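It would be a great kindness if you could assist me with a short task in structural biology. The matter concerns a single protein, recorded as an amino acid sequence and a row of backbone structure tokens. The record follows directly beneath this note:
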Amino acid sequence: MNETPLQIERKSAEYWTVTFDNPPLNLLDPEVVLALRDLLAALEADEAVKVVVFNSADEDYFISHFDVVRAAEMPGPGPTGLPAWTDIVVRLARAPFVSIAAIRGRTRGVGSEFVLACDLRFASRERGILGQPEVGAALVPGGGALEALPRLVGRSRALEIVLAADDFDAATAERYGWINRAVADVDLYDVVDTIATRIAGFDRDALSTAKRIINQRAEPVSAEDINESAREFRRLAVSPAGRARVADLLARGMQQRSEFELNFGTELARTHPA
């Protein structure tokens, strides 16, 4: 395991890149949550930074999903007083800098919820896959998807994404409005770098003011709503159906480097415990 699951590069004072590097599967585990908390503290204290790009060292997984095995080890409330994940999502959405997700590989569950909290989302057309598989595991999304998706894609498509619990390719995600744009894989990082470099060259006060006003106009996701979804996630996780379903999925290869994880959406429909 790496010393830190986030590799940070300051391309300039104004422009940082952050790479998720948490083998073997880029799970969202307690160490990633703590590293994100520390990263946000550093970014909030730096008055020069204007744009941050998030990518992945693993070409198959941007963030695979939440680490269900270590859920009880997740950190306590963040500096806002909100639960750990809600704290990260809210701070990222409200930050004065611009956050961009460059998605290559799979980002499901809380991985999708992380990129939904970013300001801009670009994905590899050939290799980007997004999904909210929680309902297929007898759970519900608990980190912001139930709040963000209806605003972005509309009610019916949000229901399709959440209730079908399937994988969606980048082209479909673009058409639905889940991401800004699907980009040829060979061009993904160049396209994102061009946008980030352009933004980094503009006035920070103008950037942060525009983002703040757009957030106000767009009826941003509230911490209270995310906390309600998180409570329902926890309730279902300890229910008999939730425990049985998660145990079945773990036995079939979930949270391992496996065909199951590569094809999560398809595999969810194969077995339903009695």
